[in-house]
Write a structure and sequence with these properties.
Length: 351
């Protein structure tokens, strides 16, 4: 996607194990006898983690000027280190489009076996991804998508629309349980002009509509702590009573929560976005208005490295019947609450 600051997604622990990537692909029930409709898998689940052909995976991402982006690079490197058959070759992270193009060109020249790219701008880096593919190097496109499907072998990323839907259902259900009518619902976006933000807002509005609710006020906060604080302060001053607030991004949510605390407001519930560790800790402690967050976790980078390794080694995903890694994987947006936060805390990123 064409944005300099972007977002998110939710993982999947190991790609060899789980209902992670596609619902219904695995089961805990004993396997039935193979039939012509469902041939027996040729490799036991988890077997893909065994050492295989040595491969070099190149990695390029934006500069770590944001908690989520920093976690992307950290997760990619940590996962690569888990495999003795992977040589991880990252290039210098940058927010400069031309520098990222040059960095990817260096990886193509080095003839890496696979590339994992989170582009600063999918549109502007589309041509260099195409060049890699034409050179026989499979590209795993992480999060911000290249517009040309010929530019990547597999895309993996989060569900922005699904984030909005998850947030909307949490708020709608909570307000219905309280018998609230005509609620004041406030939405703090990231960057309003970005497609990802528009997808999130549409999902939120669509879900709220099923409860007969709609957004009262909406303002963007640029994905920064400072602007989050300023926007929240303004919205709190404009509305003497609020019933619910959805903040799209947990990084900017640090500023949002600070503004709420400073104003001494606690009459509403708040839902965050992305799944940061500090948001999860606040949810666990249950001493602020933040009661839930919807995931768009940077652990997707870990999955991208695993996918690149499998593709470079000519393997498929052992939990799937198909012989090759899927062309596209959209991760689910999970809702984290006090009841399940312990399960997600290990996946949180520091804001």
């Amino acid at each position: 996607m064409s944005e300099n600051v972007a977002r998110r997604g939710f993982l999947i622990g190991g790609l060899g194990g789980a209902a992670l990537l596609a619902a219904g692909c695995t089961s805990n029930e004993p396997s039935a006898a193979p039939t012509s409709a469902a041939p027996a898998p040729t490799q036991a689940a988890g077997g893909n983690d065994e050492p295989g052909t040595k491969v070099t995976i190149g990695f390029s991402a934006p500069a770590a000027d944001h908690g989520w982006i920093a976690a992307i690079a950290k997760n990619a490197e940590a996962t690569a280190k888990q495999f003795s058959d992977v040589e991880f070759q990252p290039v210098e992270p940058t927010n400069d489009i031309n520098q990222q193009i040059s960095a990817v060109e260096s990886l193509i020249a080095a003839k890496v076996n696979a590339l994992v790219i989170l582009p600063n701008d999918g549109q502007q880096l589309n041509q260099i991804a195409l060049r890699a593919t034409e050179a026989g190097i499979p590209v795993v496109n992480l999060d911000r998508i290249f517009p040309d499907k010929l530019a990547y072998r597999t895309w993996i990323g989060g569900d922005n629309y699904g984030m909005g839907v998850a947030a909307g259902h949490y708020i709608g259900t909570a307000l219905k349980e309280k018998n609230v009518s005509n609620p004041v619902i406030v939405e703090i976006q990231g960057i309003a002009t970005l497609p990802l933000t528009q997808d999130r807002s549409k999902g939120f509005a669509d879900a709220l509509k099923t409860y007969g609710f709609e957004v009262t006020a909406q303002q963007d906060a640029q994905f920064t702590v400072e602007t989050g604080n300023e926007v929240a302060t303004s919205l709190l001053q404009a509305h003497s009573k609020i019933d619910a607030l959805w903040n799209h991004d947990d990084d900017q949510g640090v500023g949002v929560l600070a503004a709420i605390s400073e104003a001494g407001r606690d009459e509403f519930i708040m839902v965050g976005g992305a799944g940061s560790a500090n948001a999860m800790r606040a949810i666990k402690e249950d001493n602020t208005v933040l009661k839930a967050t919807v995931t768009y976790s940077p652990t997707m980078a870990s999955s991208a490295i695993k996918l690149a390794r499998l593709i470079a080694q000519g393997k498929g995903m052992s939990d799937l019947v198909e012989n090759q890694v899927p062309q596209s994987i959209t991760l689910a947006s999970e809702t984290i609450t006090k009841e399940n936060v312990e399960q997600y805390l290990p996946l949180g990123f520091e804001s």
